[in-house]
Amino acid sequence: MENNVGSVDRLVRLVGGAILIAIGIASIVHILHAGTIVGVIATLVGLVFFGTGVTRFCLLYQLLGVDTCKAP
Asked: Domain Inner membrane protein YgaP-like transmembrane, which positions (predicted)?
């Protein structure tokens, strides 16, 4: 697997993913009143974002031919 997620993109994914995970978990345990389903969805999306930030590889980017690692 070749990296296709650049530095800025990676940072946004890591921070955004962590925030979504926190919101999702807070919703699941009823700290936030967004609902359990919303909490589960936010947690799953956050995990995907965080995971793609850690691995620096995004399958959707590969399928669409997007690469934010390389300079234009």
From this structure: 1-71
